[in-house]
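Quick one, tokens below. Sequence please?
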């Protein structure tokens, strides 16, 4: 069973990269995912000035780190998601 992870990547000035550069990063990440035998799935990423916050599904944190190594991108902090909440949580 795959678990959800949030990955913090420190990448200086990532927020100023243009679409073509980000597309290249995504293609590289997808190529690394293809080598992982469905042990890792990329859900989405949020890009800020100098960091990206990525949501992945994976068997374990080591699989996330292996993907980062293959893709040549940092995985500075890898946290397993314990639970999620949103505005509807307050209504229960």
């Amino acid at each position: 069973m795959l678990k959800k992870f949030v990955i913090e990547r420190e990448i200086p000035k990532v927020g100023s990269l243009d679409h073509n550069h980000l597309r290249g990063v995504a293609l590289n990440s997808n190529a690394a995912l293809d080598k992982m035998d469905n042990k890792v799935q990329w859900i989405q990423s949020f890009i800020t000035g100098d960091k990206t916050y990525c949501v992945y599904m994976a068997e374990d944190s080591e699989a996330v780190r292996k993907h980062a190594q293959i893709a040549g991108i940092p995985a500075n902090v890898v946290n397993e998601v314990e639970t999620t909440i949103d505005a509807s949580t307050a209504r229960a």
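The chain has one domain: 3-91. The two ends are 28 Å apart (CA to CA).
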